[in-house]
Write a structure and sequence with these properties.
Layout (H helix, E strand, L loop, with lengths): L3 E4 L2 E4 L4 E7 L8 E7 L6 E6 L6 E3 L7 E6 L4 E6 L8 E8 L12 E2 L3 E6 L1
Parallel strand pairs: 2-11
Antiparallel strand pairs: 1-3, 3-8, 4-5, 4-9, 5-6, 7-8, 9-10, 9-11
Length: 123
């Protein structure tokens, strides 16, 4: 069973960068597509990024394309999300999630979720 936990969230100034990570303490994440989602207060949880099992294919939400980068280290059972040129609109709880469907970015395909990490971007 996959057991996920995010880390690295915090407060950053607008225009700055932050890298958050997600580690699996259970079954290795290498067999799963890993996704990042975020949820701001009063808003729906939205897709941010996904990376396939081997790490050679990524997809991103329109609002973060060109600024966010997802990567993974299967030997360390860890995935990362590098966020650059952050704006206050990026303030949200960020969740990592695992899916058995290779290459998916559909929220309903992700069955295992971490508890989330708060990212706050100050203007």
């Amino acid at each position: 069973q996959v057991r996920l936990k995010e880390s690295g969230g915090g407060l950053v100034q607008a225009g700055g960068s932050l890298k958050i990570s997600c580690a699996d303490s259970g079954r290795a994440v290498k067999g799963y597509t890993m996704g990042w989602f975020r949820q701001a207060p009063g808003k729906e949880r939205e897709f941010v990024a996904a990376i396939n099992r081997t790490g050679d294919s990524t997809s991103y939400g329109d609002s973060v394309k060109g600024r966010f980068t997802s990567s993974r280290e299967n030997d360390k059972k860890t995935v990362h999300l590098r966020m650059d040129s952050l704006t206050p609109e990026a303030t949200a709880v960020y969740y990592c999630a695992a899916s058995g469907l290779d290459g998916t970015s559909c929220r309903s395909d992700f069955g295992s979720w971490g508890p989330g990490t708060q990212v706050t971007v100050a203007s």
